[in-house]
Write a structure and sequence with these properties.
Elements: H1 13-22, H2 28-49, H3 58-79, E1 82-87, E2 94-95, E3 104-112, E4 123-130, H4 134-138, H5 151-157, E5 166-172, E6 176-181, E7 186-192, E8 197-202, E9 213-215, H6 226-235, E10 246-247, H7 253-263, E11 266-269, H8 282-295, E12 299-301, E13 321-324, H9 326-336
Parallel strand pairs: 1-3, 9-10, 9-11
Antiparallel strand pairs: 1-2, 3-4, 4-5, 5-6, 6-7, 7-8, 11-13, 12-13
The structure holds 6-O-phosphono-alpha-D-fructofuranose (P6P).
6-O-phosphono-alpha-D-fructofuranose (P6P) is lined by residues 112-113, 115, 217, 251-253, 256, 279-280.
Domain Fructose-1-6-bisphosphatase class 1 C-terminal: 207-336
Subunit structure: Homotetramer.
Cofactor: Mg(2+)
């Protein structure tokens, strides 16, 4: 008996987005924005995978790959229905020229962890999408950047993560995985190199409620405050189970987060004596990742409050980040009271 291969079981990202649009979860403009982001991520994936071949490694190489990924993501967004974009690479938000512009506000980090490129360690692009904001676009300066009159746009880009409509990342690793939430759970799509499409590989991902993996750069241990040191010391205590936590840290937020999303545990980038607010950016690193974490049943905290409740006051604002399994983040918060 010939087994019927269920060719209709494969769902591409494009097909999934169209289904969400048909179901009224997202509108046509947002579908276009998300499609253009996924297209840009495919381009970045090939850039990253060929970095050492096309001489994009080493300091100058890293600068080039950073520049090229930024241009690729920005230009792809330009062709989308985006109104304003704010990126780690731009000092101020950039307005998309009138002819292309839609209304959505997209914040992104084109290539997080890019210092890992030379060693071919996982890197990633992170994005978040906020609701349209018409009057904001009216203030845009002639050169498409937000001049002083455009301060309201800055304010409108600086929205709390609780306003996010969609968030996601693309991880460039042993496989290229596009993870997205539009507020209805977390979905993962793996790039099939055979035909260059992202195909649905995991749906409604749930972070394990607890996990004995902690992901911190302990090189900063001496700079941390005593309550945090006590928390880390206690994780190493084998305790009655006889098994301490395991440490896993690759120095790339997207790779460390994706492992935490699937295996459970906690990733942390604390404040320390040198960096009063830690290192990671609220708008285009911590908030999008926290939206994903919460949609998967986990938590994202600055140690005292929900990341998604923080009202950004500056585009490149930094905050401490503790993110992952609900029970692990809550345990950490108790130590920091
Ligand atoms: P450190 C990469 O530069 C990054 O922004 C995150 O991707 C990563 O988790 C963190 O910084 C690594 O920082 O200080 O441990 O090298």
């Amino acid at each position: 008996e010939i087994k019927k291969k269920n060719t209709f079981g494969i769902q591409t990202l494009t097909g999934w987005l169209l289904k969400q649009e048909q179901a009224g979860v997202i509108d046509a403009e947002l579908t276009i924005v998300l499609s253009s982001i996924s297209m840009a991520c495919k381009q970045i994936a090939s850039l990253v995978q060929r970095a050492s071949i096309s001489n994009l490694t080493g300091v100058q190489g890293a600068v080039n790959v950073q520049g090229r990924t930024r241009r690729s993501l920005t230009s792809s967004l330009m062709s989308g229905r985006t109104g304003i974009i704010a990126s780690e690479e731009e000092d101020v938000p950039v307005a998309v020229e009138e002819s292309y512009s839609g209304n959505y506000i997209v914040v992104f980090d084109p290539l997080d962890g890019s210092s890992n490129i030379d060693a071919a360690v996982s890197t990633g692009s992170i994005f978040g999408i906020y609701s349209p904001n018409d009057e904001c676009l009216a203030d845009i300066g002639d050169d498409n950047t937000l001049d002083n009159a455009g301060q309201r746009c800055i304010v409108n880009v600086c929205q709390p993560g609780s306003n996010l409509l969609a968030a996601g990342y693309c991880m460039y690793s042993s496989s290229v995985i596009f993870v997205i939430t539009i507020g209805t759970g977390v979905f993962a799509f793996t790039l099939d190199p055979m035909y260059g499409e992202f195909v649905l590989t995991q749906q409604n991902i749930q972070i394990p409620k607890a996990g004995k993996i902690y992901s911190f750069n302990e090189g900063n241990y001496q700079l941390w405050d005593d309550k945090l040191k006590k928390y880390i010391d206690d994780l190493k205590d084998p305790g009655p189970s006889g098994k301490p936590y395991s440490a896993r840290y690759i120095g790339s937020l997207v790779g460390d987060f994706h492992r935490t999303l699937l295996y459970g545990g906690i990733y942390g980038y604390p404040r320390d004596k040198k960096s009063k607010n830690g290192k990671l950016r609220l708008l285009y690193e911590c908030a999008p990742m926290s939206f994903i974490a919460e949609q998967a049943g986990g938590k994202g905290s600055d140690g005292h409050q929900r990341i998604l409740d923080i009202q950004p006051v500056e585009i490149h604002q930094r905050v401490p980040l503790y993110i992952g399994s609900q029970e692990e983040v809550e345990k950490l918060e108790k130590y920091l009271v």
